Amino acid sequence: VQLQASGGGLVQAGGSLRLSCEASGSIFSIAVMGWYRQCPGKERELVADITYGGSTGYADSVKGRFTISRDNAKNTVDLQMNTLKPEDTAVYYCAARRSASRIVNWWGQGTLVTVSS
After folding, report:
1. CB 62 within 8 A of CB 48
2. 50-74 b/e with 16+ CB inside 10 Å = b?
3. Which is nearest to 37 in space by CA: 101, 100, 87, 106?
4. Phi, psi torsion values for 5, nearest 5 degrees
5. Which phi and psi angles does 57 have, rounded to 5°?
6. Are 5 and 20 in contact (CB under 8 A)?
7. Exposed, middle or buried: residue 44 (CB in 10 Å: 0-12, 13-18, 19+)?
8. Under a CB-based contact definition with an 8 Å cutoff, are residues 47 and 79 in contact?
9. Which stretches in the chain have pLDDT values below 70?
10. For residue range 21-47, what is the model confidence (pLDDT) as tens digits?
11. 90 - beta bridge partners?
12. pLDDT at 113 (0 to 100)
C-alpha cells in the first residue's frame, strides 16, 4: 500500500485547510484510514480516523473543527480542518491500518500545516 498525501500549507488562525490522501496498491488490505500529526517537540498522535463503513473517531482537541471523510471508490481520505489554531501546527501524516487495532501498517509522507497567529 502506498499513501500519497497533499494539501498542507500556511494559514492564519481561524482559517481552513483540506488535506487529501490517495491510497494505491493492495488497497483491499485497508480497513481504517486516518490522519496523524506530530507537533513540534511532541509525539505523533492520532487526529482522526474512519473505517471502511464510515465510522469516525476524533481526538478531543479537534472535535467540532475537523471532519474526516473517505471515498472508497476513489481510495481517498480527506481531512477538512476548520477554525485552525496555532497549536494545530504540525506535520500531518496519512495512515492506514489493516484492522481496528491502533497499529498503523502503512504511513504516507508528511505534509506540513502551519497556522500563524
Report:
1. yes
2. bbeeeeeebeeebeeebbbebeeee
3. 87
4. -100, 155
5. -145, 145
6. yes
7. middle
8. yes
9. none
10. 999 998 889 999 999 999 989 999 999
11. 113
12. 98
